[in-house]
Amino acid sequence: MFTKSDKYYILNSALIVITIVCVFTGINFNNRLRFAHEIAGYLMTIIIAVHLALHTQWIKTVTLSIIADKKKLMALMLTLLITIGVCSYSLFHSSANQRGGGHFGRQHRNCQNFNPQNLP
């Protein structure tokens, strides 16, 4: 039977492979790869959920140690604030949103006739 370390190794290896597939199909996005990209995204979400469930006790222990140390807590808060800021900026100011496109500003099949000037 598999040891705990063996299970984690298999899970993490699967996560790495699925992430590489998702990133590759996302960068080279086209209609042929769309299905693979979506399936890889769903699988990655499931594997991450399992990964987090298996590490719940570790997450609790580390979180409590960070909360107990004021410097670590401030570093965590600053990291979260910067991460939220960068994600918000990229979401609301990307060239993809300005052009009405999808991944990296490319037009998707349903957005080919989109014109923001026609909006009410």
Characterization of the model:
By secondary structure, this protein is mostly helical. The mean pLDDT is 82. It contains five helices and no strands. The protein has two domains: 1-54; 57-99. The N and C termini lie far apart (63 Å).
Percentage of residues in helical conformation: over 70%
What's the helix count?
5
Low-confidence sequence ranges: none
Rg from alpha-carbon coordinates:
20 Å
* SS content category: mainly alpha
**Distance between the ends:** 63 Å
* Element string (H = helix, E = strand): HHHHH
Beta content? under 5%
Please tell me the overall pLDDT: 82
Element layout with pairings:
Blueprint: H1 4-27, H2 31-54, H3 56-68, H4 70-92, H5 95-99
Which key phrases capture this entry?
120 residues, mainly alpha, flat
Please outline what is shown here.
This protein is an all-alpha fold.
